[in-house]
Amino acid sequence: MGTITMLLEQCKQGDEEALRLLCAKYWDELVVLARRRFGSLPRVAVDDTDAVNSALMAFWSKARRGELPGVQDSGQLHAWLSTVVANKVVSEIRRQTAQKAGGGRRSDMPLLEHLAHTWELSPLEHQLVAETLQYYVEQLPEDVKSFAAFHLAGLNHQEIADRLGCSRRTVIRKLKVVFEIWAELAAKRGEG
Asked: Would you list the domain boundaries of the chain?
């Protein structure tokens, strides 16, 4: 049994020192992940460390209640924490977006995100989806990355235009470029 697996088991028994050691082990990496997820998006009222704190508190709460049966080792813990941090960032971006748009429910959720929420995915599968999306965004030219990031965060064309200080037509045109590049990348990955 590895050190992380042992600490994980101790956390499940309520050992606060084990939690402190796990937090120290994963903190820096999770903060970097949160920063990457926020990416070029404007900083919101909370920062990356808030997302990490929230994820670690969720872990602690669920571990003590025995609600993490699928998290048995360091790989599964890393995947679970990464997924929760990524979801916390997306939730914060949505909350901020909803406040700016006057609140209410969003009906324009991107298809991939909708599927990820409706399918029952494991933390590892969520991480794979997040990494795949990150790969596709990183392949884009700099002048369209922010358009793609806002689109993936669930903003509609007008909201993206407002955030980036451009016209709705520019957003549509830039997203067309994004989708064309992504289609080419997908075709190449399918051939290889």
From this structure: 1-106, 108-192
**Residue 166 DSSP code:** S
Distance between CA atoms of residues 110 and 157, nearest Å:
12
pLDDT band at 120; cut points 50, 70, 90: low
What is the distance between the alpha carbons of residues 55 and 53, in angstroms, rounded to a whole number? 5
138 contacts: CB under 8 Å, gap ≥ 6: none
Is residue 88 classed as helix, strand or coil in its secondary structure? helix
User: What is 1-106's CATH number?
Assistant: 1.10.1740
Tokens of 119: 């399918």
Tell me, what amino acid is at 107? Answer: S
pLDDT at residue 114, rounded to an integer: 45
| Displacement of CA 153 from its chain's centroid (Å) | 9
Local confidence band at 190 (pLDDT 50, 70, 90 cut-offs) = low
| CB 149 within 8 Å of CB 137 | yes
- At the second CATH level, the architecture of 108-192 is Orthogonal Bundle (1.10)
For the chain, the straight-line distance linking the first and the last C-alpha, in angstroms and rounded, comes to: 38
Cβ distance 26 to 33 under 8 Å? no
Distance CA 150, CA 125 (A): 22
